Amino acid sequence: xxxxxxxxxTNINEPDQNTLSAAESRGxxxxxxxxxxxxxxxxxxxxxxxxxxxxxxxxxxxxLKWSFVPRDTGKPVYLITNADESEPGxxxxxxxxxRDPHLVxxxxxxxxxxxxxxxxxIYIRGEYAYPYERTKRxxxxxxxxxxxxxxxxxxxxxxxxxIHRGAGAYICGEETALIESLEGKKGQPRLKPPFPAVAGxxxxxxxxxxxxxxxxVPWIIENGGAAYAELGVxxxxxxxxxxxxxxxxxxGVYEVGMGYPLLQFIEEECxxxxxxxxxxxxxxxxxxxxxxxxxxxxxxxxDYDSLKNAGSSLGCAGFMVMDDTTDVVExxxxxxxxxxxxxxxxxxPCREGGHWIEKIFRRIAEGDGRPGDLELxxxxxxxxxxxxxxxxxxxxxLPYRSFIQKFRTQFRERISEVLKGIERKRNPMDFEVGxxx
Amino acid sequence: MxxxxxxxxxxxxxxxxxxxxxxxxTNLIEAAKQAQSEVxxxxxxxxxxxxxNCRMCQVEVEGAPKLMIGCHTQxxxxxxxxxxxxxxxxxxxxxxxxxxxxxxxxxxxxVCDQAGHCKLQDYHFEYNAKPSRFLEEKNHxxxxxxxxxxxxxxxxxxxxxxxxxxFCEEVTGTGELGLLNRGDKNVIAVHPDKxxxxxxxxxxxxxxxVGALTHRNWRFNTxxxxxxxxxxxxxxxSTGCNVRVxxxxxxxxxxxxxxxxxxxxxxxxxxxxxxxxxxxxxSRLTSPTLKGExxxxxxxxxxxxxxxxxxxxxxxxxxxxxxxxxxxxxFVQQVLSDADVVLAYRERTLTEVExxxxxxxxxxxxxxxxxxxxxxxxxEQQYTQALEQLQKGAYENVLVVGDRALCVxxxxxxxxxxxxxxxxxxxxxxxxxxxxxxxACAVTLPSRPFLEKSGMLINRTKRLQYARKVxxxxxxxxxxxxxxxxxxxxxxxxxxxxxxxxxxxxxxLGAEPRLKGLRIAKISREGICLDSYTPEESPAxxxxxxxxxx
Lengths: 437, 550
Description:
The structure holds two protein chains of two kinds. Chain A has three domains: about 20-230, 3-Layer(aba) Sandwich (Rossmann fold); about 230-325, Ubiquitin-like (UB roll) (Roll), CATH 3.10.20.600; about 330-430, NADH-ubiquinone oxidoreductase 51kDa subunit, iron-sulphur binding domain (de novo design (two linked rop proteins), Up-down Bundle). Chain A is about 40% helix and about 15% strand. Chain A has helices spanning about 20-25, 30-35, 40-50, 60-65, 90-100, 100-115, 130-145, 175-180, 210-215, 215-225, 225-230, 260-270, 295, 305-310, 330-340, 350-365, 375-385, 390-405, 410-420, and strands at about 80-85, 120-125, 160-165, 205-210, 230-235, 235, 240-245, 250-255, 260, 280-285, 290-295, 300, 320-325. Among the domains of chain B are: about 10-100, Roll (Ubiquitin-like (UB roll)); about 290-450 and about 475-500, Rossmann fold (3-Layer(aba) Sandwich). In chain B, a hairpin with an 8-residue loop joins strand 11 (about 230-235) and strand 12. The longest helix of chain B is centred in the first third of the chain and has 16 residues, at about 90-105.
């Protein structure tokens, strides 16, 4: 428990791992052969036994999600791999698609067999040009080899796979917005219910899973759900890819067993804080999770429960480290600009409130903060969270609230400097964002 | 609720501590109406898809972790729902939504056409009414951008409810509109190389809950509070769209579709809307004429009596009221000895989009003429044949009732009107002094066009509706039923005793067995489907209550 353990990244540094022959020589496409001899429902049981939770951020149990798919509707079942990895601070799926795409394809094939789906799609974010080329080539190779298409491995099972590039919207990582986008519409979340498992792509039962989640499936097939459940800790089984960035010496993608101690991760895996500075705080799960101060990080482990108890969440493990040179006002302004820019604009609280908050943060950063601004932002957060169509609004306010709550002194100082007539720290023209949309 | 008599599964729930029972599948916005609770909304429309984007209709549902939107939440047995009336959380959420909707709104109510019937104004007053905390600069978007020949956009006033977009996608299927950009930069726009130009395009203005979309030809006409409003029916075709007409100083300044799920939902065609006053003649007959010369009513009526003997063609306009048809029928039966009755009826070919709402005829009340037994069978053929016979000189007399008794598009109008002048007696009960009919008739008696009178209509699907008078009758005119009555009287027959439009309606409701039990107020609401109506024995004089405007 809690140690480095390689399931997904075993071959990630092999330079030719993206080619089918090399990947196969290292064991790829063994699990799918085994899976095709298994009862599809048995695979779902194995997934349940593994207790694996979705790696895209929400942490919903994957086996349970699959079991919601009705099997007698007469409609096709669609499997979609969510590779729209757009959360600031997250780049783990990119590593898999770029360097070991056959692992993902095999995971999708195993899942497709379990769900009896004959068509799947990788929805990849538009900016991921290189991973797109690599994955596209890998799919072509699999078709050439007969691993995709009709009668896969002589099983009679037919499966077709396509890769589709997004057009640069964060919201298309939300599964129903992704489906809308895939249908050729503007990427905007749908009202739920119905959930995609019942009525997703073109109104058919659809499963949307994160890249990393599906990449775990071959291992689970080969080793069994129970073996997987032994990895990690209770409620957080298996390993987790962590995208580590920020003020650390060795940023990158790491695979750790669930429950790995947070501070040890910074020290041992990430090579410690840059330039010998002190830790200010960590955003552990991607930008839409609550920030943890250095003090709060003590004793916290990288798993769902531990981070939840600490007041944040594992999310998709977009692990951003900030040292004490960080200007928290600039940091949150940057984030708020991202969220207001990425709000799809469909529902009122997120569309209007998100941008309003950005404008206030900008004012504070530019030296025009006023007493009451922080309270106003906190109030606006409560007007947005819980009142929107999708989780975007709910999660957008988490960093705002936690930054203000945990770094209130810094914010207050910035506002009072203005009141005391101290010269502005920054020139408003330095940071010209929001002009182009 | 259902008129076709199907048994519906009912659900009982509690809204603001009041128990209500509604059909299964009803949403909470509609259900709340039964508890006399208002759930406010912008994006929801009962006849469009539910996007749930405005967040105005949030309600508290016991057991739900957060507020639910009324538009997307269906009733369930035993559900306990709280609206702003009994929930502080809902009150706050709605006030918050309004605050957010207004931060980028230009607040230019002083020059906005929507002022006075704007849902932003109304709801802000009722559900928020607090000053804004917004100190930043508002967003700027397109202003006065024509979307097509009929509609113009003010992007800053828009609240992105997408009703207009959904209308063009779901109702007309033309899909000209879309929402460009993301976040608070989003703006309604027409697709490249397209314009909003479909037969129902003006409906998007009705659907716009704010002043973002306005009619190009009616902009800046008047403040809405200076207008008189009448609930009426469009006379353009037999769909019988329910409309609300805004009139000021005798001029129609705006026409809106009125919600009626059984007829026109809340849509209306541009032809009907922008041409609503097209049947009001520019030049009126103000006194009776005899051979083109002004004459007294008595002389003209006496001359008209001359048509009561001999073979007569009765040519009826298709937009006469049911009451007028009923009296015309009495006239034909009791006064005329040998008459052929035809209705001016032509059908046209409609495009797919037109057919969404428009009926192929121009005959608002041809069903009414059928109802009273004046005409039946193939109306268009009868009309064509009658005109041919008239040209051949088969009729001694011609009686024309209504300006639209001759279809405008009939190519050889002149031939018919010439044939009429050769009849021994031709009488026109008309209002338009310049029409060919008025010039062809030996006797003209000034009557009233559709908008100047109240009465009943039966639409294509046999729904009985009530159209109220929109503007005051022209000087010197009389209702056509009264004129028919005077001619009958001159011929020694009494066919009508009423003095007002309303009297005629009431006496018809009282006398016609198939309409027994109906009241004007009841017909006015959503109309009555005659195919499924069972006449009641209760007397129609209950009409005495509350209908003074008729």
